[in-house]
Amino acid sequence: MNVVFYLLAALTIGGGLAAVLLKHLVHCALATTVAFAGLAMLFLQLDAQFAGFAQILVYIGAVAILIVFAILLTRGSELPKDGVFSRSWFVGLAIAAGVFAVLAWAVLQSVRAVPQQMAVPAVSVRDIGNALVGRYVLPLEIVALLLTAATIGAVIVAMHEKERPKS
Amino acid sequence: MTTPLAGYLLVAALLFAIGLAGALVRRNAILVLIGIELMLNAANLNLIAFWRFGPHPEALTGMMFAIFSIAVAAAEAAVGLGLVISIYRHTNTTELDKINRMKG
Predict the structure, then answer these.
(1) pTM of the shown model
(2) Contact A107 B86 (CB under 8 A)
(3) Candidate from B23, B28, B72 with C-beta closest to A25
(4) Dihedrals φ, ψ of B99, to 5°?
(5) Closest CA to A19 of B86, B46, B92, B20
(6) Chains A, B: CB contacts under 8 A, how many?
(7) Hey, which residues does B26 pair with through a beta bridge?
(8) pLDDT of residue A74
(9) In chain A, how long is the greatest CA-to-CA distance?
(10) Do A121 and B20 touch (CB under 8 A)?
(11) CA distances, B66 to each of A43, B47, B72, B91 (Å)
């Protein structure tokens, strides 16, 4: 537990909080990007270089851009008149606080029983590639199929529909 | 003082709670999707932390799970935002309170 971990955790949590609390949707998208970057640096701190850079490429490079596109295409940058939070916001807040309390209690109760390896795992990108085309080749193919289907599906869903006569 | 694994798990739990609160509390559909993305990311942080501090990291199980989870989350974000744009075309709003009929 060094100071870098605390800084990155504060950056990630602060970005997440700002993403949920800010009024303007564009600011929310920016704060989400900060949270994603903090998570990528936490992955690097955990010696998971490949996952960290995949996080930067996929989330900051693609998902954040998609969110900004969706906000601008739906005129989300205009503030709604009757507030950004739903009427029953306290119920959602209570559920989230309860979930966090249960998770934190479970972590603090059980983590002393778990043996921890402090040695840095010696895993190179070469090992990850070999595992992807060896032991994990079937999930890899399924993910490829899923991404193709999701791309086609997203285009079809968001495609402009022709006006049909009302029946 | 807590162990490093507990620190990462607590950060992930807090991020999950923040994402859940965002998904439950906000009116805008895009913000709900952002909340879901934050929850998925918190789960990924758990997977990577258990991979790093658990036994047999050379088996790469947690790392592979996280990588596949990132790929599936990207597909989910694309389809979800496409749906939001499609709903906006139909109803001219992205506020979830006003999307209250199922007829297209």
Answers:
(1) 0.89
(2) no
(3) B28
(4) -90, 85
(5) B20
(6) 250
(7) A85
(8) 85
(9) 68
(10) no
(11) 11, 6, 10, 36
Q: What is the CA radius of gyration of chain A?
A: 21
Give me the interface pTM, i.e. the ipTM.
Answer: 0.90
Compute CA distances A33 → A30, A59, A79, A82, A84, whole Å: 5, 8, 21, 27, 20
Which sign does the torsion angle of CA B3, B4, B5, B11 carry?
positive
Cα dist from A161 to B5, B78, B83, B87, B104, whole Å? 50, 19, 13, 12, 12
Q: Domain A1-79 belongs to what topology?
A: Four Helix Bundle (Hemerythrin (Met), subunit A) (1.20.120)
Which helix (H) or strand (E) segment is A3 a member of?
helix A3-21
- Of chain B residues 82-101, which have a CB less than 8 A from chain A? 82-86, 88-89, 94-97
**Rounded Cα–Cα distance for residues B12 and B19 (Å):** 10
Residue A83 neighbours by CB under 8 Å, 6+ apart: B27
Domain B4-91, CATH among 1.10.3720.10, 1.10.287.3510, 1.20.120.10, 1.10.10.10: 1.10.287.3510
B71-104 pLDDT, tens digit per residue, is 999 999 999 999 888 888 888 888 887 877 776 5
Copy the structure tokens of residue B40.
């998925």
- Using CA atoms, how far residue A88 sits from A30, A46, A99, B21, B29, in Å, is 26, 38, 17, 12, 16
User: Taking the C-alpha atoms of A49, A64, A21 and B89 in order, what is their torsion angle to the nearest 10 degrees?
Assistant: -150
Query: Given an 8 Å threshold on Cβ–Cβ distance, is A35 in contact with B16?
Result: no
State both tokens at A156: 């079809």
Q: Which of B33, B48, B58, B91 to mutate to test the interface with A (most CBs of A within 10 A)?
A: B48
